[in-house]
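Quick one, tokens below:
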């Protein structure tokens, strides 16, 4: 039969895997009768594309002087990622562009859009992604301690 028969999850070892390909050289297929077959070149060109939109918690948190924010984009989308202060005022835009499907890593160095260091405190970061089939918005908070 055809169709999805397995899902494999990998941990990314690189911060910018867009366009990277994964090759699975050998494997075993076990059917419903528990018969085992050896197969070669199972996935000669598996691309690293997420299943769904995601915005992860920043790390480290609390942070000083910088923090890392990871996100996942499963389809081409217009993506903005903005940092706000606790009053909802925009501090800095970390991303505002078209993203191809993939995993993204951004760093915030605790500076505003003019390159000035911001005060210790709670900040919010918000992603908004608009793709062809879906829109995704999520907000997380982070703490800058100086």
């Amino acid at each position: 039969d055809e169709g999805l028969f397995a899902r494999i999850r990998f941990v990314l070892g690189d911060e910018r895997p867009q366009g990277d390909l994964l090759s699975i050289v050998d494997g075993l297929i076990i059917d419903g009768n528990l018969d085992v077959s050896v197969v070669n070149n199972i996935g000669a060109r598996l691309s690293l594309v997420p299943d769904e939109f995601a915005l992860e918690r920043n790390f480290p948190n609390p942070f000083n002087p910088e923090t890392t924010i990871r996100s996942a984009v499963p389809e081409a989308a217009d993506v903005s990622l903005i940092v706000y202060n606790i009053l909802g005022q925009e501090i800095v835009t970390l991303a505002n562009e078209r993203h191809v499907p993939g995993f993204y890593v951004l760093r915030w160095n605790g500076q505003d859009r003019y390159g000035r260091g911001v005060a210790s405190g709670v900040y919010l970061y918000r992603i908004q992604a608009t793709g062809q089939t879906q829109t995704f918005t999520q907000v997380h908070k982070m703490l800058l301690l100086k």
